[in-house]
Amino acid sequence: MENNTLILGGKGKTGRRVADRLQGMPVRIASRSAQIPFDWENPDTWEAAVEGIQQVYITYQPDLAVPGAADSIRAFVDVAVRSGVRRLVLLSGRREEQAQLSEQIVKDSGLEWTIVTSSFFAQNFSEGVMLPAVLGGAIALPAGMVAEPFIDIDDIADIVAEALSTDKHVGKHYEVTGPRLLTFADAAAEIAEVSGREVAYYPMTPDEYRAEMAKYGVPEEETEMLIALFGEILDGRNALVADGVQQALGRPARDFSDYARDAAAAWK
To answer: Taking 60 as the threshold, does the pLDDT of residue 3 lie above it?
Structure first.
């Protein structure tokens, strides 16, 4: 069947990696600019995007932790069920109340499902909004000195690609992290070592972060969403390592130092 796998966020960090791993399979990449557009903020685009689709990789923008995300996931799952979708693979965030609601919606859908609950992406330092901060030598966030087991998203992509191309992960819920805890200061030090740059981490209070974002014209709503997100996922609740990569793939998760070495060109 043509385009029987739909990848939501197919141009994003994990989505494009999953698409690369599924070369040879019929895949539809969903985005606002796609030939058949998909927009989380426009439910009228959803039905056409899932037409003829058998399985969907679900990533939600801006984040499953934001208020209202679960309502969108519930509405999308309803469309998927009506359209004959057979399998859902959801990327979620660790110990986020709103994300857990979305996870349960997928589990209760009556469809085949796999859920990958992830820690903070290592690639945020080299591909996301934090890259300019790294290049500028100062990573400043309202994240304190909490440790986080940063995950290399190639591990996520390997699991998701298997979940979409085989039956071995149906009904499985994996909590995936890197193999060790690092503070943002630790991560900055490792990036500095491999890149040859001076990179430091500066913890900020929420008010300091608001003021800094205002300087760059970041909308207040977006700033408040980021502060709430950092406050939820980086309050210490996630300062522990999980073995989901080992469970899913039968191998250890990639270490942050391996990621940093491979990503060094982005910082040079």
So the answer is: no
